[in-house]
Specification:
275 residues; alpha/beta; seven-stranded mixed sheet; 7 strands; globular
Length: 275
Amino acid sequence: METDTERQYRSVSQLKEWRQCHYRWYLAREKLDENGQRIWQRPAAWLAQGLAVHEAVEWFEKSNREGSLEDMKQVYSEAYDKHINRLAEETPNFESWFGSGWRYPAVKDIPRRYDKGLRQVERYYKYVTEVRPQDTLLRQTNGEPFVEVQFQIQLGDVWVRGVIDQVYWDDQALDWRIRDIKTGKAPGDEIQLAVYAIPVNRDYGMDITTGDYWMAESGKPTIVYDLTKWPRSRLEDAFGELDEGIRSERFDPNPSRENCMFCPVAAACEYAAYS
């Protein structure tokens, strides 16, 4: 019998990456360089920003929303420094980092992203304390708020794991919903939220069929997503295709300007259309 340490897990991010470009998945997650190390991935300040905002939100929710905004900002600040320093230790040459367009190379984007993240933290605090304080988080079985909760499920023959940002009660719709927090410009899709609903429904005896993305740039959620478009059978097919493609080593490239421009492993890709 396959043990937990031997089991190969897939994830929503892997599925998204695979669908965009099989070869990107291979370079980022499996291929080794001549020294037996993982392929270098180009860092960006927005990575630290996203992680730090999530850590600040998690801290605030685990304080039962009793923490102050200033304390929440301090958590964000420390987390941002931690992640930037880690990335800088791995890639000390900032000219090798992603920037935000020609106006903001990494040396300018790092402080800029710090400020953007602070504003996003402020928006979250205002949203849950002033705009929609009646929308409360589900409580886990241990009594803690349902925020940044790890899960693993089996979809067909494929094991999938990840982290669910939130499950909250929508006081206007009078229903429970899955929520993911996005610090970038684009939300996700139904697939991510539908996968997250499965372990919640399993573990809490619920029937959640909707979800949304809370967009930190606008300070409000997206439209409500109908998760019934992705029943379990359809998710099993999607992850089954992903797993079969990886195991059969079908790593076809899919170069395009859109796919390659922000690909973190484009520097190691002989097919890159834009690097």
